[in-house]
Each structure stands twice: as structure tokens, then as C-alpha cells.
Amino acid sequence: MENGQSHETGGKSAGWRGSREVWLDAARAAFLESGLDAVKIQTLAARLDLSRTSFYWFFKDRNAILDALFDDWQARNTETLVAACDAYADTIAEGVLNVLSVFVDDDGFEPRYELAIRGWAHRSDAIMARVAEADARRLAALARLFERFDVPPDEADVRARTVYLAQIGYISMQVRESVPTRIARFPAYVKTFAGVTPSARELARFHARHGIGTAAE
Fold first, then answer.
1. What single string gives the DSSP state of each residue in 144-181?
2. Among 47, 74, 80, 136, which residue has the fewest nearby CB atoms (within 10 Å)?
3. CA triplet 125, 41, 122: central angle to 5 degrees?
4. How far is 47 from 44, CA to CA, in rounded Å?
5. How many Å apart are CA 145 and CA 181, to the nearest integer?
6. pLDDT of 13-57, one tens digit each?
7. Cβ contacts of residue 131 below 8 Å, gap of 6+?
């Protein structure tokens, strides 16, 4: 670049203000590390070694970046879960495995983000309402998954809640469980959630997706 190194190559050009993504990444990191009170303009500017005025090129005020942070959580966590519910599956067991994959994949749904947002909701009625809307959308997607396999609506709703509340419970309780241990329990979880046991073929595909071979076959 004519005016110096780009941010991506490890330096900053003269007058570099960052970018919307850079400021949002910093806000997310501060939020996850230290909570909502750490997401302040001056704190983020110091974290990025940028001027406070640079922030205003990308966000109107602190509320704007907080709104962006919430939207980012929605994109990462809610949309990831909804997409898993709507993903192709031959059987309900495979569909539930698709959903469970969300909670063990390194990319996509982020448990720490979920916990932090829900903590924020306890401080703000407006955020609590928005989180409730996200919960309703997630539950609707899960119920829709069961209904695709001819589960009656009332039963689909209960099964959806069983899946969802179990997973959110893992996060809220901050359960310390290794990924191999949790995955080993998934066949029994699928039977509990869906009423059927996944086949050896379905488990083999699931294990291959997570790079753990076919140990549970």
C-alpha cells in the first residue's frame, strides 16, 4: 500500500482508523473477557491503539456498537442453530445429530457468547425481550425439525424444548466436559430427544464430521 503497511500484514498505515470489523472484534473480545462494562469507546480505542475519534467513522455511539454486538451474537449463535435444524437429514436421528453438532463445533455457535449475552439480559429488559425472541425462533426451528418427520405439533414442541433447554442448561451451568466424553453420550441423547437410536451409519457420518473416526460403532 502507498501509505504504509496494511493492518492485515501487521502494521498500520498513516491515519489508519481500523474498520467496522476491527472495532466489533475488539468489542466482542472485551465483552467475553470482562463483561458489558468493558465495552466502552475509550477502552476499545486503547485496546486497539487507535484514537477515540476513529470509532465514530464506523459507529454513531456506544449504543450502536452494543446493537452490533447483539446482532453479531444472533448471526453466530441463533442463525447457526436454525441452519442446523433446517439442514438435510434422512431421519429424525440424523436431524438431531445435526443439531447436536452445533454445540461441539469450534466454529459457529459460541457458548461463552451465549452466557455473556444472557448475563446482559439480566441487566436490561430490552435485551431480555430480544433474547426471548431469539429463544422463540430457535425453539420454532427445533419444533419444525420434528414436524418434518411427522411428529405431532404438541409433541414436537415438547421435544424441541427438551433439546434446547438441555443445551442451554449445559451452557448456563458452565459444565466442564471434554468433547469426546460429550460425543460419546450423543447416541443416548438422540434416543432421549427423538425416541429413536441413531444407526451405525448415521453415527459413522457424525464421527467422521468431527474427525473422531468410528470408535463408537
1. HHHHHTT--HHHHHHHHHHHHHHHHHHHHTT----HHH
2. 136
3. 20
4. 5
5. 26
6. 445 788 999 999 999 999 999 999 999 999 999 999 999 999 999
7. 117, 118, 121
Selection from 59, 188, 54, 77 nearest residue 130 by Cα:
77
Classified as helix, coil or strand, 201 is helix
Give Rg (Cα) of the chain: 21
Q: Alpha-carbon distance 18 to 185, whole Å?
A: 44
Residue 12 scores a pLDDT above 70: no
52-111 residue pLDDT tens:
999 999 999 999 999 999 999 999 999 999 999 999 999 999 999 999 999 988 777 999
Please give the grid coordinates belonging to residue 39. 465495552
Nearest to 96 by CA among 211, 17, 202: 202
Q: Can you state the percent helix, strand and coil of the chain, rounding each to 5?
A: 70, 0, 30
Do 92 and 44 touch, CB atoms closer than 8 A?
A: no
Q: For residue 101, what is its C-alpha cell? A: 453438532
Is residue 212 within 8 Å of 180, Cβ to Cβ?
Answer: yes
**Distance (Å, whole) CA 194 – CA 83:** 19
Does pLDDT of 144 surpass 50? yes
Question: What is the number of alpha carbons within 13 Å of residue 139 lying toward its C-beta?
Answer: 17
Per-residue model confidence (pLDDT) at position 213? 56
